[in-house]
Amino acid sequence: MKETILVIGSNGQIGTELVTELRKIHGENHVIACDIRRPDYDIKNAGPFEFVNVLEKDILNNIFKKYKPTQVYLLAALLSATGEQNPKLAWDLNMNGLLNVLDLALIYKTHRVYWPSSIAAFGVNSPKVNTPQYCIMDPNTVYGISKLAGERWCEYYFQKYGLDVRSIRYPGLISWKAAPGGGTTDYAIHIFHDALKKASYTSFLSAQTQLPMMYMDDAIRGTIELMNAPAENISIRSSYNFAGVSFTPEVLAAEIRKHIPDFKLSYMKNDPRQAIANSWPQSIDDSQAQKDWNWKLEFDLARMTEDMLHNLKS
Ligand code: AKB
User: Fold this and answer.
1) Which CATH class, in words, describes the domain spanning 5-172+215-241?
2) 84 C-alpha to center of ligand 1: Å?
3) Residue 143 bears catalytic tag
4) Sign of the dihedral through C-alpha 179, 180, 186, 189
């Protein structure tokens, strides 16, 4: 069956790479990129683009009416650090944006909806190491609260209305094509840029702060694999744990030094993102994703570091 796919939030860190990959698979005209901002890269020239604010339901409705999408990826969101600067807007965008899309997907009989959750849905009382799929979840950022509530809405629309919604709890995502969007894990991208530019970086997270991270190539492949998996294999309708690789700023710096031996890392004090990071898991158990849709990670820390430096350099 020919798919028609809407990617809402196409200009962000994930959308930029997801649109390109989906267009390779389904053809340029079958993937409609949508964003509130003008695309500042090739997306517009490579296929259809629509301006949309996910909170403007009438305009979003017109886009659903025009394209009758078989799949929708909703990526528009305010992340953990920027969300704390504007909590009400973060709640509005992250929650009402999701509800608008879920409602329109029902009306226009969209076959599958993808919505990303995050490790931010866990909180201070969640187990920190190898965090299981099911455990206490008490997030204390508005981003985390909206992710946890969003997961419940996804499951609700599946249980009540049979909408095929799928989701992954992303760890920090590391990529070189588009800038990160105001998260707590962004240090792990900035560090590569500064390592190449000036052989030094000042991290806003402390040396020992371990967080789960994943290279964007793995994240995009995993997302598409989840969306392509047969519905009967999907046992989790809230959101799947997704592990990646866990490391601290200190460990990442040591890996970078294998390529840039005089790289120096220093640390800021009292950055508000430290408290957010302290409330998140250090590592994740994603055995359910492995079991249900055969998920396998490809990029370890060494391969990711090499690839990041190579691509950023060129
Ligand atoms: C953030 O740091 O806010 C995001 C995330 C882990 O969801 N990268």
Assistant:
1) alpha beta
2) 12
3) yes
4) negative
